[in-house]
Amino acid sequence: MPTSERFDCHYCKDSLLGKKYIMKEDTQYCTKCYENLFANCCEGCSSPIGCNSKDLSYKDRHWHEQCFNCAKCSRSLVEKAFAAKDDLLLCTECYAHDYSSKCSTCKKTIMPGSRKMEYKGNNWHETCFLCHRCQQPMGTKSFIPKDTGFFCVPCFEKQFAYQCCACKKAITTGGVTYQDKPWHRECFLCIGCRKQLSGQRFTSRENYPYCLECFSNLYAKKCVGCTKPITSLAGAKYVSFEERQWHSECFTCMQCSVSLVGRGFLTQRDNILCTDCGREK
Questions:
Q1: If we measure between CA atoms, which residue out of 74, 67, 114 comes closest to residue 94?
Q2: Three-state SS for 76?
Q3: Cα(202)–Cα(43) distance, integer angstroms
Q4: pTM
Q5: Cα dihedral angle (165, 168, 169, 170), rounded to 10 degrees?
Q6: CA torsion sign, 18 to 22 to 27 to 28?
Q7: Which H or E run includes 210?
Q8: Which residues contact 44 (CB under 8 A, 6 or more apart)?
Q9: 184-221 residue pLDDT tens
Q10: How far is CA 270 from the centre of its chain?
Q11: Could you give the CA distance from residue 49 to residue 61 in angstroms, rounded to a whole number?
């Protein structure tokens, strides 16, 4: 036969006319040579994976279809979900039984691929991680641990958080206590001007809180000399005489303006005079 008409195996040179062959990189091989040269070795039986067999691969490892089985129970993994552990392939049931975490509520295995919740070394099925109060799944929402249970934020606030006596809503951070009652800082206001009193000096009248300015303007005695309020909360000292009051610095002689604090004085109608000015009259 002329060379131009020959169609031989590239390796063993046997004729391929009328025979099964395999092309690799534009070169033909008989099946025997191809298997000897290129076939992958099966991880299960250590035999070559021939041309007539399916080659199943995972991470550069190869198996015959009939050898692709769970390393523990030997069930076929073909077209099934599986997991790898220490180079072993396991069906999901065997992997879950041996290696998956258990739900802290129902004690059942949390199957690979299913959503789970984790907190301080404990695990739960997503549907088993429930609020202790309302028994609703909390999923990825915020929660608060309390004693041996977990609470969604609304339930925790209802059951444990203080309620502001002004707005009746839960106090979750900070807060102010006044007359044994809890308040939000932003709700604790002067009854007069509605200014926030948290962190400020204040006083009260008939159980209502007032800032010093409002209390002075509304209730403090007025100085006869300057007509401004006299309040001891501001540290002011004052003098009282015949139901009239003065700041200490305002209690002076009407005529010469000398201070009368700790000194004798005389009255002339509504005026206060030092003894010297009084005698001149």
A1: 74
A2: strand
A3: 83
A4: 0.37
A5: 50
A6: negative
A7: strand 208-211
A8: 63, 64, 67, 68, 69
A9: 989 999 999 999 988 888 888 888 899 988 888 888 78
A10: 69
A11: 12
